Amino acid sequence: MLVLRSAALLAVCLTWGLWTAVSTARAADAEPVYELRVYTCEPGKLPALEERFRDHTMRLFEKHGMKNLAYWEPLDGPEAETTLIYILEHASRDAATKSWAAFRADPEWKQVAAASEQNHGKILAKPPTATFMAKTDYSPAIGLPVADKVYELRTYTAAEGKLDALNTRFRDYTVRLFDKYGMPSYGYWVPLDPPQSGDTLLYFLEHTSRDSAAASFKAFAADPEWKQAFTESQKNGSLTAKKPESQFLKLVDFSPRK
């Protein structure tokens, strides 16, 4: 009888463990996957790329299960004339793979791509870059961007083994202080694939203007709480391997927006 009871108890534990594992996996699968894509055009071909996205590509993305979140172009430098940056949302990494396969096989897309190249010649200077990302636990919910705002894409490369500490500083201090000084956060992500998955944090801030961004960062840097948090976090060495990268962006006319 004792053996039977032990066997029954073991069966219950195994069933519970299996159910818990399945539930955890489903919860993980339920988290969206985000894709940051950057297109670089041949000189003078950005309007042709914009036309293709505006008239066809975005609609076909949605048709195949890829949610359009935001589309930007740089405000400054030569990239302003050649670059399109956007974020897609996928139900999962597997869903992204299936959606892209269906999109590329779509007869309408093939026709659009062929007609676009025939009318405008070679549009892209090189293959697009794609970074699959997971939202951090301290990121705000990812929604639509706000019209008539300036956005800033910032990329941090953590020192070896310091990405968790960098995320802790953002979670406990930085995000709140950004908001205090008029820099709302659009979203925070870490890449899913190595080597960036081990050392990179990407995020977007929202500004009223370039001038307001400069004023906000000046006030942020002078904040006593930030100074203390920064100093404390650096006791065992710098959390970053190099200076953060910053790129100011504007929403394009065909981007979803609030």
From TrEMBL:
A Pfam family assignment: NIPSNAP
NIPSNAP domain: residues covered: 34-124, 151-256
Keyword Cytoplasm annotated: no
Domain of life, per lineage: Bacteria
Name the UniProt record assigns to this protein: NIPSNAP protein
Keywords, comma-separated and alphabetical: Signal
Annotated organism of origin: Planctomicrobium piriforme
Keyword check for ATP-binding: no
Signal peptide: 1-27
